[in-house]
Amino acid sequence: MHRVSSLIFGLGLALVAATSLSAQNPGGSAEGKAMKNPVAANAESISAGQALYAKNCRFCHGPDAKGNGPMAPKDSHPSDLTDAKWDRGSTDGEIFMVIRDGAGPEMKMKGYKGRMTDTDIWNVVNYLRSLGPKKK
Ligand code: HEC
Question: What is the mean pLDDT of residues 45-70?
Answer without folding.
Answer: 96
